[in-house]
Amino acid sequence: MPRLLLLLLLAPAARAFLAPGASAPLSRSAARTSLPRLSAAPTPLANEGDWSAYRDPATDVVYYFNGRTGESLWEPPYDGFPSIADEVGGGGAESKDEGEGLFGSLFGGAATEKTPEVVEEVPVESKDEGEGLFGSLFGGASKEKTPEVVKEAPAPAPAPAPAPSFSEKSAPLTVDGVLSFLKPKKAEEEIIVIPDSPPFSIEMSSRVLPHPEKISWGGEDAVWSDGRSFAVFDGVSGADKVDGVPLYSKTLAQKMPAFTTRGRGLTTSGLVAALSDCATFADAAATGASTALIASVGEDGILRALSLGDSALIVVRDGEVAARTRDTSHYFDCPYQLADGCRDRPKDGSRLKVELRKGDVLVAASDGVFDNLPDEVIAGEVKGGMPAAMAKSITDLARVVSLDDEAETPYSTQGKKEREPGFESGVGGKVDDISCVVVRCS
What is the value of pTM for the model shown? Predict the structure, then answer.
């Protein structure tokens, strides 16, 4: 795209950004200038409502002034405003400076100052050439116009404080400058504020049960935990794999310590960065594919979680599910996943941020748990006790249900709706690898 055309398209947004003190973009029709209070004013050519028409003796051009708001315009304020006869006030043709032309102001034509003779010295009205589309964009100087003052004329009412205007103080416009303003602003880095005394202590435990047919080699699920942070990586059974090459899910779990700080809480951006670094390593060194759920309980008592795929995390409070991560899937049984050449990346995952309380229990698990057990059933298995005991109870129950052909499960219910082969009746467990991490805030 030619540079000139790009500037023409971006001009309205750029002008608003470049205006000193502008709080929102302004179109030309919305930009307003305020007139100072005069001790006397020129005789109006026409009046209607709050608006009056005057002729500027410096340019012989009619302008319109609102005595109540202080707004001034070069065009009639609305259709039907009384027309101004050419012969009134001299009737000369409108004059236009070279700098006001399209290419005059575009390529830096300087505006000239015009100070007509006045009967009485008064503050001058500044009407910026910046009101032209390109005048202010390239730093053109503003023109000062002093209308002729007639003492006998009634004075307009006091005007409000000047609105932001575009003047020679605006920075000269360049293509790079415009594009820099239009780039998305980088989000501020989140900081974990560590209190003098932690709100609670953390106890954590995990358990993995391989698919019955994969017990000999450990299955495809993997978990990781390290003080305040933990993760569940669910290997995608349908992904292509190369014999003798480490699985993607287990590679992620093994590399997490290298990209995190032991015993320290992670911010949301820290979770994304750590998982991204691990995924980059696994892309080159591993085979297969994996979903990922990574979370951290900060020293500030805030849970932050990132979920890519259909593993999930629930916060159980007083026996009820108080919060849950959101699954991310392309369609039924095709979750977002990490793999070499896959378009899904950690930044595409859903986020969860929850302020925890003493007594809360967190359950993070693969779909081997959540496909077979409803959230409320899992919450019912959280009845106090140690995290290891709760993790065992949840995984054992999920395995029992997964082998029950008559069990009504979350997966069988959805499978019936999706006409999944084998689940037409809407019942039946789903046999899978099962993994679970339980965290207790005590």
Answer: 0.59
